[in-house]
Amino acid sequence: MTLRVLNTLSGEKEPFEPQDPDDVLVYYCGLTVSDFAHLGHARTWVHVDTIHRWLAHLGYDVRHVENITDVNEKIVARVGEGELGDSEREVAAGFIDQLLADMRALNLKRAEVYPRVTEHVPEIIDLVETLVEQGHAYESNGSVYFDVTTFDDYGKLSNQRLDELEAQGPDAERAEKRNPADFALWKAGGVDRSAVADHRHDDREYAVDDPTGETWDSPWGEGRPGWHIECSAMSMTHLDSTLDIHMGGRDLVFPHHENEIAQSEAATGEQFARYWLHADLFEMDEEKMSSSLGNFVPVEEAVPRFGVNALRTFFLSASYNSTQTYSEAAIHEAEERWDRLENAYRRAAETADSPAARTTAEARDLRTAVDDTRETFAAAMNDDFNTREALAALLDLSSAVNSHVDAADRYDYRGLRRAVETFDELGGEVLGLDFAGDEAGDASLADELVELVLDVREAEREAGNYERADALRDDLTELGVEIQDTDDGPTYRLG
RNA sequence: GCCAAGGUGGCAGAGUCUGGCCUUACGCGGUUGCCUGCAGAGCAACUAUACGCCGGUUCGAAUCCGGCCCUUGGCUCCA
């Protein structure tokens, strides 16, 4: 069973074959740090993370690089607000800290490296020089532009035709360009004032009227890197001239990724990325959620509110390559699904530990269900990362566990253990759900106290004092301890 | 205008590439029964024959072909 992925480059699902059979070189276009990350970013992250996890599960050594763009007119505009920092670097640093915290909160696997533009200016200048020497780029007024007419394949990713394209970039740039679709590799002088003005929020006061961004020396004078060039320079620096997988949001296909291909392939003469995977966008009221539209829910707010497991389940309930819409009802539904999984997990783990559990020759129903789940799950993930079906497979296993525990008078120890392992491996390792989270940490004293209260409650129940028993349960519930009575006695979960 | 993705039951959302073995996948919501001192969790069943519209191909189409309508995204910073 081989992995097949939808490649934007061909528009088709293709068998996945990395250059090296053991490694996968993954580059993910990360954020520009001019604002807080929102649920739209979170959704893409979770899918990229799950793809990473599945590749690792298949046995590949995943070399994952994810850039952070910390040079941008929008960041400079934030400097002008005067509250977040006095320089482009300072503002960026604050958002980067938050970004990394958000990623941890979402239980994302760490990338090998998170390269930043400010740390790679020499590599960027080298690459631009190469392109100028090759005749693919030209200087104009101290800026350097890529000449799109020198790259025959321009438009192959987004199916754009040069003569249909509208001019890129701010007005001031256009006069300097040979062709309307040429794009800046290097921008002369300081920050583009008109671009900064565009990014300012109208309803804010500006402490600094004329903020400036950082500039660097270059063969063309003082200046700043263009938007697209950093991804080419950094992916070549940290990975290779040819990537196996390049991922990003659908909104980056054009012009960002198209331009990355042009400048990279022109410079190296090699294919830039073999597979392009694009995550579709997250919508809010039939509009994409975005910082610039102001219609976003920050990750920082959403994680504590909904919980990381419910959020991941929510995002994974739709394909990475289809759009998804924000709605509290939908997130609530995902929370219910997650609860169902977690319930079955605990039930399987607890039942396996009960004295009535043993391995018998008969009653193989659960083991069969586990095998089915693993097979269905793998088939779903191998079919372009169909996470919704993968979740469905685990939910089927949940049903099987529940039916088994409800129906059997002797529990299948091995089947229950295998169910637990499967939840851990597929739900935990691959989908990034945290089954053990509630029991982790130093809850031992809390556990003992809860058990003490439950013992008292059991005694009251046996004595028929249901009012006192229920009062204890209510009190525990209020403290965030959920109680469930089962045939084998009460169980609880610390909220 | 050009390019791309999509329109599936009350909601959400797979399936479309590789026509039938597809089934209101999985789940949420609703109803009923079982279990329970109660609650929760769970189990069983039900929720009138859904696939944007119109044609076509086919023994057979959600799935293929043609046309049309609508939505979203990109062509300006963007995950």
What Rg do the Cα atoms give?
27 Å
Question: What do we call the CATH homologous superfamily of the largest domain?
Answer: HUPs
Helix content: 40-55%
Record field, number of beta strands:
17
**Number of separate helices:** 16
CATH fold-level topology of the largest domain? Rossmann fold
Provide a descriptive summary of the structure in words.
There is one protein chain. The chain folds into three domains: 280 residues, Rossmann fold (3-Layer(aba) Sandwich); 111 residues; 54 residues, no CATH class. It has 16 helices and 17 strands. A four-stranded parallel β-sheet has the order 4-3-9-10, covered by helices on one side. It has a four-stranded antiparallel β-sheet with strand order 5-6-7-8, covered by helices on one side. Helix 9 packs across helix 10 and helix 11 runs antiparallel to helix 14. The longest helix is centred in the C-terminal third of the chain and has 26 residues. It binds one RNA strand of 79 nucleotides through helix 1, helix 6, strand 9, helix 8 and strand 12.
In short:
The protein is an alpha/beta fold and 495 residues long. 46% of the residues lie in helices and 15% in strands.
Topology:
Layout (H helix, E strand, L loop, with lengths): L3 E4 L4 E4 L7 E6 L10 H19 L3 E6 L6 H9 L6 H18 L15 H14 L2 E4 L2 E4 L24 H4 L8 E6 L4 H7 L23 E3 L3 H10 L4 E7 L3 H16 L4 E7 L2 E3 L2 E2 L10 H8 L1 H9 L7 E2 L2 H26 L3 E2 L6 H18 L4 H21 L3 E2 H18 L13 H19 L3 H13 L2 E6 L2 E6 L1
The structure holds one RNA strand of 79 nucleotides.
